[in-house]
Amino acid sequence: MTIGVLLVDDQPLMRVAFNLVLESQPDLAVLGEAGDGTEAVRLARQLRPDVVLMDVRMPGKDGIEATEEIIAACPDTRVLILTTFDLDEYAFAGLRAGASGFLIKNALPEELLAAIRTVAAGDAVVSPRVTRRLLETCAHQLPTHDGPVDSRLERLTARELEILTEVAKGKSNAEIAAELHLAEATVKTHLSRVLVKLELRDRVQAVVFAYETRLIKPS
């Protein structure tokens, strides 16, 4: 199966570089290129790519707004944010907007290719630990009011809530399994149910959700 990719970057040379890397792979195909957020949304609606490589810092409609619109219009499309450094508030905003991860622009070609394939398969690129570190750094962007507990949490069983809490702490499935004395496969099953019940795309979105609902508070 070929993975269709939409390239979004306001720098033509960056698009050329990404194009060269992607077109060298038999399982990847560049469906189109966009130089701004508005064009990115239009092409995503038209081409329905599997993955969008999205630069966040662009004039006009930036990558965050474009990501929100693409996720809303094309729920099967995954967005991979491109940023200049890992603790970037734009990367954080991209995750909140629904991106499945972010990648540093100077990543090695093999890292870029692996990230695209991972996202296309439905997994998140950014580890929960990196996500948590990013959320801690950008905590001032999180809701600060102490309102009622989010009603969506009531959909979860006690065990599922426990699993979500451990995921939000940045732990892997293996670490959670050891902590809770469960089989790793059982943890994976519980996490899958959590994602379905909360209508989340992947475990990175689960970490963001846990912070936004104040299930986990920044330290």
From TrEMBL:
Record has Transcription as a keyword: yes
Span of domain HTH luxR-type: 149-214
Pfam families hit by this protein: GerE, Response_reg
Organism: Streptantibioticus rubrisoli
Protein name, UniProt field: Response regulator transcription factor
Modified residues (4-aspartylphosphate): D55
Keyword terms: DNA-binding, Phosphoprotein, Transcription, Transcription regulation
Ranges where the Response regulatory domain occurs: 4-120
InterPro entries: CheY-like_superfamily, NreC/VraR/RcsB-like_REC, Sig_transdc_resp-reg_C-effctor, Sig_transdc_resp-reg_receiver, Tscrpt_reg_LuxR_C, WalR-like
